[in-house]
Amino acid sequence: ARAAVPVKNPLLNICMDAKHHKHEPGPEGKLHEQCSPWKDNACCTANTSSEAHKDQSNLYNFNWNHCGVMPPKCKRHFIQDTCLYECSPNLGPWIDQVDSSWRRERILHVPLCKEDCEEWWKDCKDALTCKENWHKGWNWTTGTNQCPGGSVCRPFSKVFPRPADLCEKIWSHSYEYSHKRRGSGLCIQMWFDPAQGNPNVVVARYYA
């Protein structure tokens, strides 16, 4: 009898159908700074990875500094979040179909490791923002996002009282706050050391 051919799981090692993603993941030798952990197998190009680090990146014309300058220790988490979103080939189990002008797929309820969410919140709690959901409701008349009329810039800690509020609400539930820890194999890490391999591969396999 012939050996059974393993069926390729359509949820594993794939890139979502969105604005800047490659059709399929592969090595990218020159990924920029914080996106470099994905260089062995990435859904982003080198150009996308360098744009992810700019204050006013061409990726989405999105301005982090809409309430004054975002502190660097906070901004690094948003850069890392962008790198995960653009570069990770391990988000298949959470890809959701959307009908939007700039992408056909998004991620929904990705279980983000407890520490990743808590550090993001801790490093950003004193930064300022005027909105809880950054996906929609901005004033785009200048071509970049500005606070909508009548909104007030307040500390993140007031807009997002708990880490889960930040991780879950800011990108309309792209992430879900997980009580699981890094290394558990049960939650997605935004931050990881590539020398140890990509820990999200086993997580995607578990949820697929």
From TrEMBL:
InterPro entries: Folate_rcpt (IPR004269), Folate_rcpt-like (IPR018143)
Alphabetical keyword list: Disulfide bond, Signal
Keyword Signal attached: yes
Domain Folate receptor-like: 14-189
GO molecular function: signaling receptor activity
Keyword Phosphoprotein appears in the UniProt entry: no
GO cellular component annotations of the record: external side of plasma membrane
Transmembrane regions listed in the UniProt entry: none
Domain of life: Eukaryota
Family: Belongs to the folate receptor family.
Annotated protein name in UniProt: FOLR1 protein
Species of origin: Oriolus oriolus
Source taxonomy: Eukaryota, Metazoa, Chordata, Craniata, Vertebrata
Encoding gene per record: Folr1_1
